[in-house]
Specification:
Layout lengths: L1 H29 L26 E2 L7 E2 L6 H5 L5 E9 L5 E11 L8 H5 L6 E2 L14 E3 L6 E2 L6
Parallel strand pairs: 2-7
Antiparallel strand pairs: 1-5, 3-4, 4-6
Length: about 160
């Protein structure tokens, strides 16, 4: 007798669990105007990306083609898998002193894990995580990018 009662109890618990799950399904079935899933790529123009989304690393430049990167290499050191490579050059100033400047700030997007350690480590805030996420390519070499634009220079007031 006790086994029959426990058997019926287990069946009722199973039915209750099933109905609880079906309640959630029915709610979304009868309110289709509240989208749960965004239909990509049809909604590219209206796609809402979260503010804290981590896309590719970018180096913002102002209208005068100036950036904040001093070429210190801290982002390169903090990158756990070597997806950042900084090539520097030495400039000789008018007073005879040497100053380091970046020649190329190379970013290997194909190796990046989007961990954000390089952005957090940058003392000048020269690099940020962008919002772009469409990176499907046929050739992996196109995922290697030079972040500093040709002819760009460091902004006035940014200290090494």
């Amino acid at each position: 007798m006790k086994s029959i009662i426990s058997y019926i109890t287990e069946i009722l618990k199973g039915i209750w669990t099933l109905l609880t799950g079906m309640k959630v399904t029915a709610k979304y079935f009868f309110t289709p105007w509240k989208h749960v899933t965004q239909q990509y790529p049809e909604n590219r123009k209206t796609l809402k990306i979260a503010e804290r989304f981590r896309g590719e690393v970018i180096m913002p430049h102002n209208e005068n083609n100036e950036h904040k990167c001093t070429g210190c290499g801290i982002c390169e050191i903090n990158c756990p898998n070597g997806s950042i490579e900084i090539i520097t050059k030495s400039l000789i100033l008018e007073d005879g002193k040497k100053k380091r400047a970046i020649d190329q700030h190379i970013y290997h997007l194909g190796m990046c894990t989007f961990c954000n350690l390089c952005v957090k480590a940058c003392p000048t805030g020269a690099i940020v995580m962008g919002q772009n996420f469409e990176h499907a390519v046929w050739d992996r070499s196109t995922l290697t990018k030079v972040l500093n634009q040709p002819g760009s220079k460091i902004m006035e007031g940014v200290k090494d």
